[in-house]
């Protein structure tokens, strides 16, 4: 139930909040819930809705997914270490 | 004595836990870039009513909060706005005459302004993503095409890059790193510049110190149509440097943006 509410909050976050707030929110949920894979889905959703080929990213349109994967792996490793 | 098993089955399963979602998202992302309109179409169909509902709620909330405003504050606001409006009316008295004269002159030289625009409501504004884009509620089914220019009055904001059925995504000219050729109008002199976007409707340009520029000068886009970009907000120059940095600001407040005009096949400007 709480996880579903968290997912709803993340969807609303992607639609209405600045990207850095969504990252913080997602990181908090990642630490709270077990295997919060939705984190990557929301990064993809953000790319799907807002991406355009910008020169500053070399025309690359999966910036949020890439950032999401890097964060996902980092948070996964941090969470593992913290539990040990 | 117990020894820790480095390559334990637990470690292996944890690696799988990490690898499978990344592989899955990688697969979905690849599919998205191979068939971009499928996922984008679904996502925007779901997101559009949510954005529209939020706008309606915000409008209703503002109207409701208006009931609780102090009467004296409202009277002050009305007085101030009425005075401002009277000044603007006086300044704009000859505007229609000049615009009509301008149109006749252009037509007589075969450069008539025949552009038709599509009204679009703004669904989302930066900084929702790292891309600095705005989402509009008009898409290909409303006649919007990729490459169309987005205006607020005479001010050019950006270009439509993506369209779906009922939405489109426009890239702003003020996006960080975006370079746009413009000219600063200082009296009768037009100084060509290359303005670099800084985000949130701000630009910078570096020009020789000898160039005469003042705060408040208008910045236009080159072309037959007088397309305003912004005004010079500040000038930074040092004694030792032979260049000066010009800070340009757009008169449009991006975060408060509600409606825009979308113009297809806009041949009146050079971008």
From TrEMBL, chain A:
Residue spans crossing the bilayer: 12-37, 57-78
Q: Domain of life, per the record?
A: Bacteria
Query: What keywords tag this UniProt record?
Result: Membrane, Transmembrane, Transmembrane helix
Task: Tell me what this protein is called.
Answer: Uncharacterized protein
Q: Which organism is it from?
A: Candidatus Taylorbacteria bacterium CG11_big_fil_rev_8_21_14_0_20_46_11
According to the entry, what is the taxonomic lineage of the organism?
Bacteria, Candidatus Tayloriibacteriota
TrEMBL record, chain B:
Q: List the keywords (alphabetical).
A: Cell shape, Membrane, Transmembrane, Transmembrane helix
Rod shape-determining protein MreC beta-barrel core domain residues: 122-263
UniProt organism field: Candidatus Taylorbacteria bacterium CG11_big_fil_rev_8_21_14_0_20_46_11
Kindly provide the name given to this protein in its UniProt entry.
Answer: Cell shape-determining protein MreC
Q: Quote the InterPro entries the UniProt record gives.
A: Cell/Rod_1, Cell/Rod_MreC_2, MreC, MreC_beta-barrel_core
- Pfam families in the cross-refs: MreC (PF04085)
Q: Please give the start and end residues of each transmembrane region.
A: 20-39
Enumerate the Gene Ontology biological process terms. regulation of cell shape
Q: Report one GO cellular component.
A: plasma membrane
The entry's family comment says: Belongs to the MreC family.
């Amino acid at each position: 139930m709480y996880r579903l509410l968290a997912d709803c909050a993340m969807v609303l976050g992607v639609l209405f909040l600045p990207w850095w707030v969504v990252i913080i929110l997602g990181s908090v949920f990642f630490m709270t819930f077990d295997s919060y894979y939705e984190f990557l889905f929301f990064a993809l959703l953000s790319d799907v809705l807002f991406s355009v080929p910008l020169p500053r990213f070399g025309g690359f349109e999966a910036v949020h997914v890439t950032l999401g994967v890097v964060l996902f792996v980092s948070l996964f490793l941090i969470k593992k270490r913290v539990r040990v | 004595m117990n020894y820790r098993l480095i390559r334990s089955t637990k470690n292996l399963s944890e690696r799988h836990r990490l690898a499978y979602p990344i592989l899955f998202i990688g697969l979905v992302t690849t599919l998205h870039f191979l068939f971009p309109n499928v996922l984008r179409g679904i996502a925007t169909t779901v997101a559009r009513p949510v954005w529209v509902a939020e706008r309606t709620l915000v409008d209703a909330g503002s109207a409701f909060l208006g009931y609780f405003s102090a009467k004296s504050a409202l009277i002050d606001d009305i007085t101030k706005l009425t005075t401002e409006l009277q000044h603007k009316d006086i300044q704009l008295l000859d505007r229609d005459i000049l615009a009509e004269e301008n149109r006749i002159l252009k037509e007589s030289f075969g450069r008539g302004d025949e552009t038709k625009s599509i009204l679009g409501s703004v669904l989302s504004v930066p900084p929702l993503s790292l891309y600095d884009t705005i989402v509009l509620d008009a898409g290909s089914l409303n006649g919007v095409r990729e490459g169309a220019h987005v205006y607020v009055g005479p001010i050019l904001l950006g270009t439509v890059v993506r369209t779906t059925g009922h939405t489109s995504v426009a890239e702003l000219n003020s996006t960080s790193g975006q370079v746009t050729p413009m000219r600063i109008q200082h009296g009768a002199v037009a100084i060509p510049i290359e303005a670099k976007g800084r985000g949130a409707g701000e630009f910078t340009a570096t020009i020789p110190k000898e160039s005469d520029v003042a705060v408040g000068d208008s910045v236009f886009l080159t072309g037959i149509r007088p397309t305003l970009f912004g005004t010079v907000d500040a000038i930074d120059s040092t004694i030792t440097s032979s260049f000066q940095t010009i800070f340009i600001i757009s008169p449009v407040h991006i975060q408060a943006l509600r409606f825009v005009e979308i113009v297809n096949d806009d041949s009146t400007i050079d971008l």
